[in-house]
UniProtKB/TrEMBL annotation:
Fe cation 2 binds at residues 252-253, 285-286. It catalyses: [eIF5A protein]-deoxyhypusine + AH2 + O2 = [eIF5A protein]-hypusine + A + H2O. Pathway: Protein modification; eIF5A hypusination. PANTHER family: DEOXYHYPUSINE HYDROXYLASE (PTHR12697:SF5), PBS LYASE HEAT-LIKE PROTEIN (PTHR12697). HEAT repeats lie at residues 266-306. Its cofactor is Fe(2+). Pfam families: HEAT_2 (PF13646). Keywords: Cytoplasm, Hypusine biosynthesis, Iron, Metal-binding, Monooxygenase, Nucleus, Oxidoreductase, Repeat. Catalyzes the hydroxylation of the N(6)-(4-aminobutyl)-L-lysine intermediate produced by deoxyhypusine synthase/DHPS on a critical lysine of the eukaryotic translation initiation factor 5A/eIF-5A. This is the second step of the post-translational modification of that lysine into an unusual amino acid residue named hypusine. Hypusination is unique to mature eIF-5A factor and is essential for its function. Its EC number is 1.14.99.29. This is Deoxyhypusine hydroxylase. Belongs to the deoxyhypusine hydroxylase family.
Length: 348
């Protein structure tokens, strides 16, 4: 039996006043799963999520904006524009709203993005608008179409139907991974160990646009996932090198990528970021989530128990920003939930 939309709405919006944050997050992701079932459901889910933007948890609201983007439906644009236009919203929520417009990729969002890419006082918002504008322009261009065709062709030659299906279901990235490398020949994949130095060089080259450098970041992410075991650590290391960049947005995205990868090689770097009180809250938040994600996948060794201790410490550290504390609380509750054998598998 499918979960009931009214019940999920009540959970997400915390109507009773005592729904825990991790339960609200799970309601959000279940709603996202249900939206895929039909256009009607999708529109209903968008309306439900949009009601949540009056909540006081920036962490939850930034995730709601993220989900609206991932639904890839233009009905969400109106709500996302309201969020971006609202200076009272936390900058992480406004950032995610702008990024979501990029994920939906409709040229209709270009005027508002062009406004804030110039005028917003917050550099993270200006940078996010830059990314979204370039993504929308590329997606809707001949070059973008040719890149997608080439990628589909390579998937086919690779002969890996499961990997191709996984890619089709994968989250929409804020910038598509690099498709062309200097010496690509007719290889069926460019996400290989031998291309790591090229991706790394683009990632770290601050004379290039942020959009180009993001494309290298996601190429490195793909290399960890698809390049075979030998490629994993070099690609993770290249991503870690990007953490010394001066853009907080860039650093937060690297941490986000580590959350997607769940590779234990990122643990030392992510712990360092979470512990760094001078780091931007958005970056520390993603580091906390990445550590939680690694633990959800991983075992119970000493490294894992150290990470648990770090998460517990910052979950209760009143001097840490609220988004950092809440990220740790949600990560810990998620780990407990996933280790509870009485819980059903959730729909995502
Ligand atoms: Fe983000
Ligand atoms: Fe986030």
């Amino acid at each position: 039996m499918l979960p009931d939309l009214d019940e999920l709405e009540a959970s997400l919006l915390n109507v009773s006043g005592n729904v825990k944050l991790d339960v609200r997050f799970r309601a959000l992701f279940t709603l996202k799963g249900l939206a895929a079932l039909s256009q009607d459901k999708c529109e209903r889910v968008i309306e439900i999520i949009a009601k949540g933007f009056t909540d006081d948890s920036a962490l939850l609201k930034h995730e709601m904006a993220y989900v609206l983007g991932q639904l890839k439906d233009t009905h969400a644009l109106y709500h996302l524009e309201n969020v971006l236009n609202d200076p009272q919203q936390h900058s992480m929520v406004r950032h995610e709203a702008a990024e979501a417009m990029g994920a939906i990729s409709s040229p209709k969002a270009l005027p508002i993005l062009n406004k804030y890419v110039r005028d917003d006082p917050d550099v993270a918002i200006r940078e996010t608008c830059h990314l979204a504008i370039h993504k929308i322009e590329l997606d809707n261009s001949e070059a973008g179409r040719a890149e997608r065709e080439l990628q589909a062709q390579r998937d086919k030659e690779h002969g890996d139907a499961i990997a191709a299906a996984a890619r089709a279901a994968a989250p929409i990235d804020p910038a598509p991974a690099i498709v062309h490398v200097p010496r690509e020949g007719d290889a069926s994949s460019v996400y290989t160990l031998e291309n790591v130095p090229h991706f790394r060089q683009v990632l770290l080259d601050s004379s290039l646009s942020l959009f180009e450098r993001y494309r290298a970041m996601f190429a490195l992410r793909n290399t960890v996932q698809q390049g075979g075991e030998d490629a994993q650590e070099p690609a993770v290391k290249a991503l870690v090198d990007g953490l010394s960049d001066k853009s907080a947005l860039f650093r937060h995205e690297i941490c986000f990528v580590f959350g997607e990868l769940c590779h234990p090689a990122c643990i030392p770097a992510m712990s360092r970021v979470l512990r760094d009180g001078s780091e931007h809250e958005m970056v520390r938040h993603e580091a906390a989530e990445a550590l939680g994600a690694v633990l959800e996948e991983g075992g119970q060794d000493t490294e894992a128990s150290e990470v648990m201790d770090t998460l517990r410490q910052y979950a209760h550290d009143e001097s840490a920003p609220r988004v950092v504390r809440e990220s740790c609380v949600v990560a810990l509750d998620e780990i407990a939930y996933n280790n509870d054998p009485t819980q059903f598998q959730r729909i995502e």
